[in-house]
Amino acid sequence: MFDFLAGNDQIKKILRQMLKCKEVPASMLFAGEDGIGKKTFAIYLAKSLLCKTPVNSESCDVCSSCKRVDDIFEIIKSHQYQEIAKSKVIFSNHPDFGIVLPFKKQILIEAIRDLEEKANLEPFEASSKVFIIDEAEKMNDSSANALLKLLEEPPANTYIFLISSQPNLLPLTILSRVQVLQFAPLQPEEIVTFLCKKKGMTRSEAIAIALYANGSISKALTLNKQQILSTRNQALELIEMLLDESDFSELLSASEKIAELENDYQSFLKTLQQLIRDIWILSLGGDSIVNTDIKDRLALLAQKASSKALSQWIQQIEKTLSLLDVNINKKIATDALLLEMKTPKSLYGRIS
């Protein structure tokens, strides 16, 4: 069942062992960056704990219990819960599974009190109850103190899973009473594999999206594929501009547009770098490129550039990417990069 989820194979191994040995902790914290699947993992663990017909200790994913736990995804997506979240646990159509969600960027004490009340009830139909607190770092002092009391004296047969992208904001008293699972951002290849297998994308389409997802499977699933491919085309046109005898004023204009990408700036540079790497491989007579759907267009560019120039471009982009950690001015950095890449034309021509 966990095989359906992308990435974090070590976490899958840990959860499977917990389920197999019937040693799932009563209180756990799923920690890691936004969008990497923490909440989905927690919900899938809840399904396994509540499943009527588990397979190898994991959720069967087809019984009525599993299906009703799954309903929480649609409830969250619909945003119909917002007023309820102020003071109540949000339940899926399974009476033994609920989630606490922030109300206007805070988790209020009323919602935690409702969680405490529900947690102290006997399970309705399963052998246990499971509750998730999403964005747990948004608890205020009062709600955190109320949760602490619940964690100190956990009701029997009750599991409480906290989700947080900023666990450093949680009180140490809370952290000391939960077992922490630290999630890592997904590797690009993990996202590519998931998109190809589960979403039927071509490998080149999946790679284009993975470069923009920045390790987030959630972002990968919501990105506009056509927009990403359009951006790839923009990067390709920049390469054509660099290889042609374009006036540098045109490059400065292109630089301005690139710098305005803000959050997608790094992904654009990675896309540009990947395209250049494909052209470099073709220029050397190789064939193992990523962007196979535009191979003919890349092959034409490979005829215009020397492998030496392309290799230098890859290194120059890598140098710019390494500077992003120091909060550089993107416009100045892009101007400098394109100026450096726009080398004398004698470097472009294929060396016979």
Q: In terms of topology, how is this protein built?
A:
Blueprint: H1 9-20, E1 27-31, H2 38-50, H3 64-78, E2 90-91, E3 97-100, H4 109-119, E4 129-133, H5 141-152, E5 158-164, H6 172-175, E6 179-182, H7 188-199, H8 203-213, H9 217-222, H10 225-243, H11 248-259, H12 265-283, H13 295-302, H14 307-323, H15 330-341
Parallel strand pairs: 1-5, 1-6, 3-4, 4-5
Antiparallel strand pairs: 2-3
Strand content: 5-15%
CATH topology group of the largest domain: Rossmann fold
Largest sheet: 6 strands, mixed
What low-confidence regions span 5 or more consecutive residues with pLDDT below 50? none
Number of domains: 2
Per CATH, which architecture of the largest domain? 3-Layer(aba) Sandwich
CATH class of the largest domain: Alpha Beta
Share in helix: 40-55%
Describe this structure in words.
Helices cover 52% and strands 8% of the residues. A 6-stranded mixed beta sheet has the order 2-3-4-5-1-6, sandwiched between helices. It has helices spanning 9-20, 38-50, 64-78, 109-119, 141-152, 172-175, 188-199, 203-213, 217-222, 225-243, 248-259, 265-283, 295-302, 307-323, 330-341; strands spanning 27-31, 90-91, 97-100, 129-133, 158-164, 179-182. The longest helix has 19 residues, at 225-243. The mean pLDDT is 85. The chain has 2 domains: 2-182, Rossmann fold (3-Layer(aba) Sandwich); 224-342, Zinc Finger, Delta Prime, domain 3 (Up-down Bundle). Helix 12 packs across helix 13 (295-302) and helix 12 runs antiparallel to helix 14. The chain has 352 residues and is of the alpha/beta class. The relative contact order is 0.09. The protein has 15 helices and 6 strands.
